[in-house]
Design brief:
The protein is 76% helix and 0% strand. It is mostly helical. The chain has two domains: 34 residues; 51 residues. The longest helix has 31 residues. The radius of gyration is 25 Å and the shape is elongated.
Length: 110
């Protein structure tokens, strides 16, 4: 079996050039910098005490969550982390909606 060594060398050279272009691009450097800062921020973040709670959730919800985390989950994000973030986000959303509603009622009273 004969191999076309010249062709293989060309493709290897092209691969090296494309890797060099990618490594030298500003976008790649920005991604590396953001990943580095994200990791250092997570290491520096103080670990808060966590407590175990039992929640009853529909199986379909957990299945959707698992699929979502497999496709789009952040680095080593698990169900507990995701649910914790979701609860905190919902609390903030509800607070802002409640504040808006109260401000509208106050304005009507004036």
């Amino acid at each position: 079996m004969k191999y076309n060594i010249e062709r293989n060398n060309k493709s290897a050279q092209e691969k090296i050039e494309s890797i060099t272009k990618i490594e030298s691009s500003q976008k790649a450097r920005d991604i590396i910098d953001s990943a580095t800062s994200y990791n250092s921020h997570n290491k520096a973040k103080e670990h808060k005490r966590k407590k175990y709670y039992s929640l009853y959730l529909q199986e379909e919800v957990i299945e959707q969550l698992e699929l979502f985390l497999q496709e789009f989950g952040e680095n080593k994000e698990n169900r507990g982390d995701f649910i914790e973030k979701a609860i905190l986000a919902m609390i903030e959303t509800r607070k802002s909606l409640l504040l808006q509603t109260l401000q509208e009622k106050i304005n009507k009273l004036r």
